[in-house]
Specification:
- This protein has about 400 residues and is an alpha+beta fold.
- Helix content is about 60%, strand content about 5%.
- It contains 14 helices and six strands.
- The chain has helices spanning about 10-20, 45-65, 80-90, 110-130, 140-160, 170-175, 205-210, 215-240, 250-275, 285-290, 305-325, 325-360, 365-380, 385-389, and strands at about 35-40, 70-75, 100-105, 110, 295, 300.
- A four-stranded mixed β-sheet has the order 2-1-3-4, with helices on both faces. A two-stranded antiparallel sheet has the order 5-6.
């Protein structure tokens, strides 16, 4: 990178525990055993990152010990975002390869909680057999790493000089490496026990800072959010007016929109259940949204699957309303409208989360929000006597 800011204390804590618990070196002599070095980009708000850090990497670290060194970079810090962007530009990653967890080892980029555990063990084994793998050529990483090591060395020496009692040094060193010293995983090293990843959005970021992480996409979310809120007012006012002539287009609009909604929700379900990387397009950061804790209802049910079930229920109610026995049609009309109303309200909630809580926008989610709102408009006419007769 052309310009490097002074590392923040959070990034220093994030990188420096390797010095406190291990003795890594950026260069390896012939007498040293082979070492595989890798950089893991993660986010504390990413469930897939949590899986990789807590479940997939510890067995490898235990198996290879000092011969495997992994440095974790928190992408929710400013420096972490800059390093991640430098990595993306260096590897010229396409949109479908963006997102975290991202593990870079040598010239290889792995992404996702499926690809990393599947391919990384073989890379480590082959790398050790070949004499080791140096730090990946991420622009700016070595400078940040060496600066952090130098600062940590100076800090450690000053602490020892200030309190040279033999009994006090281990306690201070333990406190520096404690998981409670930072809000996220500080560092992954062979010698240090992995700290738990906090599954939430750090409270240190203000709403404005989260919004600025994706200004174009988040602005689109706000526009869609206000449009949905205005639509609710419009639907309520429409229900207050006496029935007019039947709206014939609404019948087929519901069918077409529901089919499109099924496709969108089906793709999101695939991404969430297979832990794949979504194709995001030019606006927004779909993977950041899909990897957030809000991508699962109550932490269990993927929101995409819920949308898939919702559109299927709307299609079923639509079929009953227009083609089933007449005695079921009025009930189906109210069910259709109720499903659409619930979907719109839930989409309003999700759309609010994206710009103001998550700090990223999913274009697929916005598409689904627009679709369900249009279905609500069309379904409102199904409640009129002319349409239900």
């Amino acid at each position: 990178m052309p310009h490097h800011k002074r590392p923040s204390p959070l990034l220093i804590l994030t990188l420096i525990l390797s010095l406190l618990f291990a003795q890594p070196a950026l260069a390896q002599t012939d007498a040293d055993p082979p070492v595989v070095r890798a950089v893991l980009f993660y986010s504390p708000a990413c469930p897939h990152c949590h899986q990789v850090i807590q479940e997939n990497l510890p067995p490898l670290i235990e198996k290879y010990g000092d011969q495997l060194l992994i440095v974790g970079i928190n992408t929710q810090s400013i420096e972490g975002q800059e390093l991640y962007q430098a990595m993306v530009e260096h590897f010229e990653l396409p949109d479908e390869r963006l997102g975290v967890p991202a593990l870079v080892v040598g010239e290889t980029h792995l992404v996702g909680s499926a690809e990393i555990p599947q391919l990384f063990p073989t890379i480590v084994e082959e790398g050790l057999a070949a004499g080791g793998i140096p730090w990946p050529p991420i622009p700016g990483f070595v400078e940040v790493y060496t600066t952090s090591v130098a600062q940590a060395t100076a800090q450690a020496e000053s602490e020892i000089a200030a309190d040279p009692l033999p009994g006090d040094q281990p306690a201070e060193q333990s406190q520096a490496g404690s998981p409670q010293s930072t809000a996220a995983t500080p560092l992954i090293t062979p010698q240090a026990e992995l700290a738990p990843v906090q599954m939430d959005i750090p409270e240190t970021q203000s709403v404005a800072e989260k919004f600025r992480r994706d200004p174009v996409g988040n602005t689109a979310s706000v526009v869609v959010l206000f449009a949905m809120l205005l639509s609710l007012i419009g639907v309520w006012r429409r229900l207050q007016r006496p029935p007019d002539s039947p709206n014939k287009w609404g019948r087929w609009a519901i069918l077409l929109l529901s089919v499109i909604g099924l496709v969108v929700a089906g793709y999101l379900s695939y991404v969430e259940t297979t832990q794949s990387q979504a194709v995001c397009g030019p606006v927004g950061d779909c993977n950041a949204v899909q990897q957030s804790p809000y991508a699962r209802l109550f932490g269990v049910l993927p929101v995409g699957v819920l949308g898939l079930l919702g559109y299927a229920a709307i299609l079923a109610a639509w079929a009953v309303h227009y083609y089933a026995d007449p005695r079921w049609r009025e009930w189906a009309a109210h069910a259709l409208w109720g499903f659409a109303l619930f979907g719109t309200l839930f989409s309003i909630y999700l759309t609010f989360l994206e710009p103001f809580i998550i700090g990223a926008t999913c274009a697929w989610c916005l598409t689904s929000a627009v679709i369900i709102t249009l279905i609500l408009w069309a379904a409102t006419d199904s409640l009129r006597p002319e349409e239900s007769s």
